[in-house]
């Protein structure tokens, strides 16, 4: 799946809580960087990026956030392997980072309670991640016909993943008063846990923090009753387009509809746009419609991308990313994700990733 992974976020670049938004600084004290060296800052929630230049080994970013948010600071690079980066959490107060060139990820982050909790938990998980990395290296080195060994490695990998999840669940159970427990639960719920598990863990968390946006994301997941399935009627929805006009899926019955779950900061999604344009131009007169459902949390980024790529089919969003009602009902945790809906409003296919949709649509119309 997209997994919404750290490396994915870095790849596209190469390319406690309060009820109001606070503007505050991320201040970096650096060693080894020349003057005018550029660094990028990415908000991992919204995908928004900023850049600034190093002057006298010092650099400052200013950000507006209202809840703990994960950020990435990285150097420019042509490939992922060349990227020097640090991942950190920040609340609404000032954060200071001390780091050196070539080893940003080992930088010291001061001023963030969430980051300290994140770091402490990662230390407990590091032994499992090292085992997982070692297994992955072995897995990649094996020839495709090593079936038995590949299955054994996959089994061991799954066991390691289960151990990681167990540590995280125990943390949530043992720390009901920490907002970081809510963050962990939200991360786990999309891929790793059943709804009843999420509900049980959520009920144990302190009620004072259940007014936060993170908590509301979890509640929306728990309350989601239906999931789109192949062979069954598509789940109807109404979402606003970039001008605020409501678009309702059921109004498109009688057409073949492609639901395209995408994001402005998703490289593979953007690469697929020219192919979707070709399909739209050829088959729209024959009863084909595309509805792009943006997973962006930032409206400006969504609108800018629609205009930049001159997307002419309807694009809609609730600006809640994978935690929105529609994304949850359609089980979206990867971009791009496509659903093909026939003229009767029934789901006939689900496609993950790029490069396959065009062939499937052509088969329908040929």
TrEMBL record:
GO biological process: cytochrome complex assembly
Gene3D superfamilies: Glutaredoxin
Disulfide bond is among the record's keywords: yes
GO cellular component, one term: cell envelope
Single GO MF annotation: oxidoreductase activity
Subcellular location as annotated: Cell envelope
InterPro entries: AhpC/TSA, DUF4369, Thioredoxin-like_sf, Thioredoxin_CS, Thioredoxin_domain, Thioredoxin_ResA/DsbE_sf
Swiss-Prot/TrEMBL keywords: Cytochrome c-type biogenesis, Disulfide bond, Redox-active center
UniProt superkingdom: Bacteria
Domain Thioredoxin residue range list: 228-366
Matching Pfam families: AhpC-TSA (PF00578), DUF4369 (PF14289)
CDD domains per record: TlpA_like_family
Secretion signal span: none
Protein name: AhpC/TSA family protein
Source species: Tenuifilum thalassicum
